[in-house]
Specification:
Radius of gyration: 20 Å
Number of helices: 8
Strand content: under 5%
Oligomer: single chain
Order of helices and strands: HHHHHHHH
Distance between the termini: 67 Å
Helix content: over 70%
CATH topology: Serine Threonine Protein Phosphatase 5, Tetratricopeptide repeat
CATH class: Mainly Alpha
């Protein structure tokens, strides 16, 4: 019994040391405790499922509640821009792309995203 406790203690120590040294993605529990991030994930999921009305509502909710990460704020604005461009709301699309860049100065669309026929031209027009 004592050997088991010692082995468990050593394994736990190494596990805790590894956690302290290695940054990781937030756990499901951490996300559940952060409602903005939870709304962002649900919004992106709705977007991917072509539920654009729900996605727009959830992404706006995530931004309203607050997102800790600049990259998360940029992702919310980016997906809103995609929705706005796809629904022919060009001024809102432009504003969402600008908000994404304001949220995260390193924000940029991937090559395939920038080549999209609906939002690619809007995005390119905003580039310096």
């Amino acid at each position: 019994m004592r050997i088991t406790h010692t082995v468990f203690g050593i394994a736990l120590s190494f596990s805790l040391i590894g956690c302290a040294l290695t940054p990781s993605a937030p756990s499901a529990i951490e996300i559940a405790e952060r409602p903005g991030e939870k709304a962002l994930l649900a919004g992106i999921r709705a977007y991917e499922d072509a539920q654009y009305t729900d996605a727009e509502r959830l992404l706006n909710q995530a931004l309203q509640i607050g997102l800790a990460s600049a990259k998360d704020r940029a992702a919310a604005h980016k997906h809103l821009a995609f929705i706005f461009c796809a629904t022919r709301r060009t001024p809102a699309c432009e504003a969402a792309f600008k908000a994404a860049k304001q949220a995260d100065s390193t924000f940029a669309l991937s090559k395939s995203e920038a080549g999209h026929p609906l939002w690619g031209p809007v995005y390119e027009r905003l580039q310096p």
